[in-house]
Amino acid sequence: MTKIGQQTNVCFEIKHHKSNVDYLAAIEAEEIDYTFMCPFQQSKHNDKYEPIIRDEKSHIKGIIVANKSSGIKQLSDIENETFVAPFGTAFGASLLNKSYLDINGIDLPVRYVKTHQNVYRIVATDPSIIGGGVFLTYQREDENLRSQLTIIAETLEFPAHPFSASTKLPNSEVQDIQQAWLNLRQDDRHASMLRSAQLTHPIPANYTRDYASIKELNLQQYLQ
Fold first, then answer.
1. The dihedral of CA 94, 108, 103, 135: what is its sign?
2. How far apart are CA 91 and CA 94, in angstroms?
3. Cβ atoms 65, 213 nearer than 8 A
4. What angle do CA 14, 22, 159 make, to 5 degrees?
5. Where is 203: in which H helix or E strand?
6. 58 Cβ contact list (under 8 Å, min separation 6)
7. Where would you tag: which of 28, 102, 133, 153 has the fewest CB atoms within 10 A of its CB?
8. What is the DSSP letter of 138?
């Protein structure tokens, strides 16, 4: 953010919240000017925050995995398994996957296990459990673990977390911030910095094009 501030003459104060609950309360109260926002929260708070930048090549797709020895190869093979996910508000691993199961008429007991890594390891050791993750974290696991799992379903795919601005901010400032991100992409010297921000290929975000359709899924009903 230092580079963005230098280009735009804006001084950023980085604030770390004690918990996700505190962060969401600050979003609700519109106490934050700029934030990297979960796609679900962006769709929920589009009246308060506008997505201005996202990564061109980064997307979130929920996946449902089963133990390879369980014999479960598709949704129709599911009987009375338990569904595990990292935590209730996880956009891809929990909300998108629970919506997908619901749309397909599958109602399972749910257990939260804190991390994506825990999901994959629990499923790998217990054929009576299926789990929710996202394609990116699944790909990061070593081949030995992945060889014990089968992807039995994939959800719709959405652009990953946008960098969003409060709608209370001056349009001129927001446009300058957006352009500053785009300028960084044009200079190879900033490539490693953009990778660390998980915005390797920044492009302008557009709420209607990128995130509006999330509202149609009514994911709020799956929060726990």
1. positive
2. 6
3. no
4. 70
5. strand 202-204
6. 159, 160, 198, 199, 200, 201
7. 28
8. H
Angle 171-185-158 from CA coordinates, rounded to 5°? 75
Tokens of 106: 């599958």
What's the domain range around 101? Answer: 60-158
Q: Count of residues for the chain?
A: 224
Instruction: Please identify which residue in the block is written with the tokens 């629970």.
Output: 98
Q: What is the pTM of this model?
A: 0.91
Same domain, 218 and 185: yes
Say how far residue 5 (Cα) sits from the centre of its chain: 26
Q: Which residue has the higher pLDDT, 21 or 141?
A: 141
Angle CA(173)–CA(10)–CA(212) in degrees, nearest 5?
45
Q: Which residues of 213-224 are buried (b: 16+ CB within 10 A; e: fewer)?
A: ebeebebeebee
pLDDT band at 21 (very low <50, low <70, confident <90, very high): confident
Q: 68 and 86 in one domain? A: yes
Query: Do 186 and 113 reside in the same domain of the chain?
Result: no
Number of domains in the chain: 2
For residue 126, the model assigns a pLDDT of 97
Which helix (H) or strand (E) covers residue 208, if one does?
Answer: helix 207-210
Do both 73 and 143 map to the same domain? yes
Helices (H), 50-170: 97-103, 116-125, 135-140, 143-146
